[in-house]
Amino acid sequence: MIILDIKNLTLEIESNGVLIKALDKVSLTVKENEIRALVGETGSGKSLIVRAISGALPPQWIVTADRLTWRGENLLTMKQAQRQAIMRRDIAVIFQDPMAALDPSSRLQEQLLESVPEEFVEGRYWWERNRSKMKIAKQILARVGIENVAQCINKYPHELSLDICQKFMIALALISQPTLLIADDPTRGMETNIKKQILALFTHLNKTRDLSILFVGHDLLAISAMAHSMTVLYCGQTVESGKMKALRKRPLHPYTKALLDSAPSFSPDLQPKSRLVALDGTIPTLQHLPIGCRLGPRCPRAAKECVQAPTERSINEHKYRCHYPLHLQVV
Amino acid sequence: MPITPLLKINQLTYNPPKRWNFFSPRPSFVLGPVDLHVHESETIAIIGGNDSGKSLLAKLIGGAVKPTSGEILLNNQLINTHHSKARANNIRMVFRHSAESLNPGMSIGSMLDEPLRLNTQLSAAMRFEKVNHTLSLVGLMPEHYYYYKHKLSDGQQQRVALARALILDPQVIVADEPFAALDPSVRSQTVNLLLKLQAELGLAFIFVSHNLGIVRHMADRTIVMSEGQIVESNLTQTLFTAPEHPSAQKLIHAHNSLVSY
């Protein structure tokens, strides 16, 4: 069953009197018990999607969508309180950059205890309830792999290293036992050992607790190790989505191929020190978006038709938006 | 391979400065003693867990931090004194967050001009020529001379940081996590650029990285650090197939298990 369904989400930002489409008809679904990866480079709008789902956008930005639903309920039209209740209990978000997302002025303990949902707390009197909260907090911290919990819990975020803060963010998100976890670049800058630990935790929760995960990031190595399906985003447009295996085996969009090629670990027969395949240039800024397919200026297969935005086509569950996909010969 | 190494490091150690008073925290981290040698046009990668002293070692070699004891020999000449010209000219550093290490108040041109003005006898016209040449070397345009940092994209800023390291025609470049903040496609571009420059100029390149895929692709030799010590140093291919030290094994196995899905 599809729990989160996004269809043609468009986000417009006004800049100097002109409306800029920061997100252009993005479609994304997350099924129950599925790990979906949302892949894109910096500036492709992945974090904007996360913020659009969680409702953390400034009011002057215009969000329109054919569908933006959580279990069939429209997130855009529902009451603020109802939406907050969903965000509180069903969807949890791990925001990018833990140092910025954590409150610098209160200890980790306070931050964690205040997010324990009341339903989980046992006991009648305040001392019993406090003890119960503390127990829940310690359990979750041990589960995410923070060693010497007693030492860390009484510190402020700036006193701890980045990866402990990151683990702490994950604990904060998991404490309400959500149905969907949205993880915005949770493994950025982590060393391989810790990354593996975190990914193992996610996979474990997915298997034992039926947790669905929307994993946002551009660490393809981590993503391909755990995700079931993947959506690739470029510059606010979804370019391709489908099952992880199919995408890795046979990408149809030139951009997906370029992304996969950029990780040397994926091509075992690549000679050391040989040139890596890379697209020229960089992702355009919001002020200078090309018309039509936004990959156009950088795409090796671009042609005249690419100034028209391609419509979505699909082969089985593998969807792509490209006029000249890789499985067709260029005439 | 030449017999005398280009850069030789003997018994380099670093102890944090003495405690200020009784209440200041006790320093716990000690680096070294470290021995290392680097040949011409060789790439060396430094990997290791968090707090293993990788970045500190890079800074010690690059001269950003003063070592407590030990010596660094470049072409068999001692360059230990802190403000040595030989070091500034021949060992250049690319810092971890290249975007933040660029001065927002200076144009790219004057940023690149400064090391030339301070370290060489070139005339203004020759310096201008040299800056333009270096810009084209890293794949930027001559007009980027007049740009400020905020106008450039991530990849271009990385290129400027690299240009700043290259401008004095160094023999060794030390880079602290040059790829960490970059997007996949820009990362591939930077890797290609470095490989090209190394082939053209015969640079020795020492870099710190978490990304073992890139390490495997680029490095000739890989050094594994743990708790301030070099615990293993070997040819990259050998190290990745048969790591010996437990902490090296842990890193490599974690990487391989991610790749093998």
Which regions of chain A have little confidence, pLDDT < 50, spanning 5+ residues?
none
In CATH's first tier, which class of chain B applies?
Alpha Beta
Number of domains of chain A: 1
The greatest interface between two protein chains, and residues involved on each side, is:
A-B, 40 and 35 residues
Q: Walk across the major sheet of chain A and give the strand order.
A: 7-8-9-3-10-11-13-12
By DSSP (H or I, 4+ residues per run), the number of helices of chain A equals 11
Order of helices and strands of chain B: EEEHEEHEHHHHEHEHEEHH
Quaternary organization: heterodimer
Strand line-up in the sheet with most strands of chain B = 6-7-8-3-9-10
Helix content of chain A: 25-40%
3D shape of chain B? globular
CATH homologous superfamily identity of chain B: P-loop containing nucleotide triphosphate hydrolases
Mean pLDDT of chain B: 83
| Alpha-carbon distance between the two ends of chain B | 38 Å
CATH domain class of chain A: Alpha Beta
> Which fold name corresponds to the CATH topology of chain A?
Rossmann fold
